[in-house]
Amino acid sequence: MAKIVVIPGDGIGEEITRSAVEVLKAADKKYSLNLEYEFHDAGGTAYDKFGTPLPEETLEACKAADAVLFGAVGGDKWDNVDPALRPEKAILGLRKGLGLYANLRPVKVAEALVEYSPLKPELAKGVDLVIVRELVGGIYFGERCESEMHEGAERAWDLENYSVPEVERIVKLACETAKLRRGKLTSVDKANVLATSRLWRRTAAKVAEGYPEVELKNLYVDNCAMQLAINPAQFDVIVTGNLFGDILSDEAAVVGGSIGMLPSASIGTSTSLYEPIHGSAPDIAGKGIANPMGTILSAAMLLRYSLHEEEAAKAIEAAVEKVLEEGWRTADLWKEGFKKANTEEITREISQRV
Ligand code: NAD
Asked: Which atom of ligand 1 is nearest to the CA of 75?
């Protein structure tokens, strides 16, 4: 038995997590996964009920679970609450509480959705990559100074630092990820300028020696940003630090052309958390038209990375592709000539094909 904590959150969170659970149940039926679900509050909904965006009970349940499926949090309704209690604080609390040290962002352009990419179809076709971003170190967590006087001028600074164990941990995870895929790993840094990048590059090379089936290449971050725009299909797994990963993962996300399609995983020291990359979409919440596929694909990642149920994960991914090939589209993707489906309908079509 595996216990999944489901956190719907706010806005469309409830609709999209309900869809993902329905698809997981279809996969459970077929592959005898023996999954059990426990629902908990976080975000604005939790703030309204308990006065905090991340109740202790939610965090404790996540710690005790095998995996967490997360919808989204936030919305205008909570714009004026105390900044320390804003819905988005739930995400930071979960990151800290679960030790979520790595973010995995796959970008796979489904054959049927190539035309939605802002890139030329021949460039978007066949893109299937994962960005592995370090999430708890680097310049975002280094010392900083907001303002000081130096030689007569005001200045500010932020300190980037990485330790060998921090780099080892993330590169190992990236090697394991590459092993499950096409075995190509690109480590991205700025080793021609930064000392932290040179330590990163040395450490990555040492870690990769332990993975003879993985081919490691190094790329400077500026070149990587260019390559993502001119030839994204060359990449399999990209591993990088917190700052570069933040920027590159958003650049890579637009290659797919639709925010509603993209899943993500945040890997923790014990429990990992899976969520779509988009927010709570308050503008369409409650209308039943949200695209649940990013969350459904996050559930597939949950099966792959937390429960090691590769076959069931692949079945869900294949079902999503099949539904798209057959011309089903949610409102965000719909064009003349396609079959329009609301959240419930697309979920049913996917579940039937798992
Ligand atoms: P958003 O991702 O919620 O929405 C951006 C646009 O994309 C909207 O027009 C929305 O309708 C559309 N969209 C997003 N997901 C969709 C889906 N599954 N199907 C169809 N259309 C979809 O970003 P935003 O509007 O900047 O933020 C809204 C709220 O979400 C804010 O409070 C923000 O802080 C929060 N947020 C939360 C997370 C998270 O929970 N991880 C991430 C980003 C933003």
From this structure: 32
